[in-house]
Design brief:
This protein has about 100 residues and is an alpha+beta fold. It has one domain: 2-Layer Sandwich (Alpha-Beta Plaits), CATH 3.30.70. Strands 2-3-1-4 form a four-stranded antiparallel sheet. It is built from four helices and four strands. Helix content is about 30%, strand content about 30%.
């Protein structure tokens, strides 16, 4: 299994706005081959810290998604958020190979 976490830090007063964006997400990734799950995590001590947690069958499955046209379209939309405070936020991406369960 392969895990990808993308963490952003937004002003706390914008956290709920970002959560709502993800609640209405396109769900295109859900159809990707090798995709297992999506979770949006909120740090319980830092409400403005949100992490998109994706689980994949393999690194190859994730890379196929990351190179797809659907991925490009979704991430292009992020650059056009109408909210200026959310528009320029760059996530810290971490990738992990699951080595034990």
């Amino acid at each position: 299994m392969f895990v990808v976490d993308s963490t952003v830090i937004v002003p706390e007063h914008k956290a709920e706005d970002l959560i709502n964006i993800y609640k209405k997400r396109s769900r295109c990734v859900d159809e990707a081959e090798g995709f297992h799950s999506f979770q949006l995590l909120q740090n319980d001590r830092k409400p403005g810290e949100l992490t998109v947690h994706l689980e994949w069958e393999s690194k190859e499955a994730y890379l196929n998604w990351a190179r797809s046209e659907q991925f490009k379209k979704i991430h292009e939309l992020e650059k056009r958020y109408p909210d200026q405070e959310l528009q320029g936020i760059v996530p810290k991406v971490s990738k992990y190979e699951v080595v034990a369960t």
